[in-house]
Amino acid sequence: MPYYRVVGEIPRKRHVQFRRPDGGLYAEELMGEEGFSSDSSLLYHRYLPTAIIKAEAVEAPASTTLTPNLPLSPRHFRTQDLPTGGDLVSGRGLLAGNADVRMSYAATEAPSELYRNSMGDECVYIASGRVTFESTYGALEAGEGDYVVVPTGTIHRWVPQGRVTAFVIEAAGHIRPPKRYLSQYGQFLEHAPYSERDLRTPQEPMLAEGEEVPVLVRTRGGLTRLVYRNHPFDVVGWDGCLYPYAFNISDFEPVVKRTHAPPPVHQTFEGPNFVVCSFCPRPLDFHPEAIPIPYNHHNVDSDELMFYAGGDYTARKGSGIDVGSISLHPAGFTHGPQPGAVEASVEAVRQGHTQTSELAVMVDTFRPLDLGSAGLSVEDPAYAWTWAR
Known about the structure:
The chain is built from two helices and 26 strands. The chain is mainly β. The chain has a nine-stranded antiparallel sheet. A six-stranded antiparallel sheet has the order 6-24-23-25-22-21. Strands 1-19-3-2 form a four-stranded antiparallel sheet, with no helix packed on it. The N and C termini lie far apart (47 Å).
């Protein structure tokens, strides 16, 4: 993250004696990215974070396998038709993915077990409902429209407050603000569509008691359940630039041009070989002869997956796309507005329409996306032919 935070109690200097009230030493844990050559945080535990007493392999569910997008086709998945079940970890239905990133959808009311993803960062978009995110760094409250970014290796769990739906992005690396939004020292620049003030971070330690506490751990080798001698939520303080945070999509400030602007102006995060974009309500293009919806386009280096989170996406009206839909437009296929949408958008402006209402999260990948079983189970088979109507 671009800026330094301190939460709870820490000693004046790093790596010096820091004693508990009973005279014993707190145990340091340095969480560091890229071989300790990038962002890190130093956490102070009441107990040893290394003390495990049991380990057992966990079989990965068969639903995590991917199949190629063949024959090459645009796809429409209706997440509204996926069942409620599991939790925000075990209940993820795989939509699409590749070696860099996997996208899933979850609908649940149940709290998750403690979980650590040691393969990469996660970005969880809360589509509806409210949830408490609990972690070794502290707790965050999140609700509709929040992105929650979880650093690699963070032990955490999700506690819904009623039914929650979420679009989940799991990276094989780190998810960060785009470099072009930051100064060489990591501060958000004036042209960035959001700033440090828009980010919500844990404000105080979260302490929990417990012994023989299981934690599900995901690594490149598979799933393991480690049992810790003491509860991992025993951190009395931490400092650094690596921590979970929440950012609400309504705080994204759209860039507006006189004519239609391409997707990079909507970029919110970047990951290894993919980007995340936020399409938010904004004023329509205001050139007197502007066409205020996207032109037909072929992003020759990317597959484009779009989660329609709210509002009315005018460009695809009549295609079956609705709130909760996921569209996948692969490289090798030119896509654009629904037939008749261009003329309709121009007429709407003529009638006094001045603003979009769309709300969507888009993931563009630079390697082809394969298809997940959850997505295929709720696919609209007629979607590919909607441009030929």
